[in-house]
Amino acid sequence: MLRVLANRTYRHLFAAQIIALLGTGLATVALGLLAWDLAGADAGRVLGTALAIKMIAYVVLSPVAAALAEHLPRRALLVGLDLIRAVVALALPFVTEIWQIYGLIFLLQAASAGFTPAFQATIPDVLPEERDYTSALSLSRLAYDLETLISPMLAAALLSLVSFPMLFGGTVVGFVASALLIVTVRLPARAAVRQAGFTDRLTRGMRIYLATPRLRGVLALNLAVAAAGAMVIVNTVVLVQARLGLGAPEVALALAAFGAGSMAAALALPHLLERIADRPAMLGGVAILVAGMALGPFAGSLEALLLLWALIGLGYSLVQTPVGRLLRRSARPAERPALFAAQFALSHAAWLVTYPLAGWVGAGAGLDAAFAVMALIGAAGGLAALNLWPAAGAGAALHDPPDLPADHPHLRDAGPAPHRHAPLGDALHRA
What we know:
Number of strands: 0
Shape: globular
């Protein structure tokens, strides 16, 4: 898996991702302390609103950003968005009113809504071989999991030396360092795109996404992942402190167990996906998530909860990590940024539903009811994916794309027409 780091361009991009994630993790800790400083006991309401603003920015703005950026140079776009994020983070220590937090969080996440899909869509062009790209997806998953473990520890160490506003300085350094690393590499040029109006560019990713059977399945899987993930993120502190009567160190340990399970799956997936297809691996991951939610009410000790959270982390990564492979296969290079933006928006729309639902049901009807609701949502997502995403060979209808020259890339990939291939949505495959 680590052999992909021999590619200098990818190595610099991966380093940029890790550094920016660490900076974002520091900002998460500092934002919680800032909310407490400004709102006291209402800090939870402030953070909940900020989280909702983040999700709304992701859902609404990522397709818009992809459409606006279609003809911009990749490197300039990524560097510019990193610098915008650095400037916004630099302003956060000077906040004195709650509404200022909301405004700055919206600006920060608006830049991230443009940066993240564009960054993700660049990697398959840097690593065109599927085996290398699969390794890159696993490394990316590991980076996210390590960030959840390292950032709180780094923040705790820094807070022993400085006050919490200085943590935002670490966020600024992270974004600036990410921009500098991106400047040092030459990124592949964007594939040529056909001339189209803004509305066409805005909706292209969604149209391809919803026209492609495997991606309609991923849409359902997003809901299952968000249901289990929201239960972990929202209710771990309640499970540990209210139900088990333990403290903050045990909360951190439980979240670390979830991250450890996810990391174990990410490490195993490059080899696993050489032996089995994406569909059974991802559906197996959903089965693990649903089983974990169903077993939740029986986790009556810290040891049981740690095992359960590790199991759910395993299922979470089994579903999440291969998604990039499916996006890469489902569109031509010119259409990948729009498709990654569509996945970014639709996956966060699922979280926008499950985050508050996990909290409201847990607070109103109890944690066992929250486990049951999240298990039902996960099962519904898995069953929908099973029906929406045909098995290998299913749905590969014979078709004859008209008026294509003999050297057209589609005919080189799929063979002379008429031909069969896996379901694909693009300008040649509207249905």
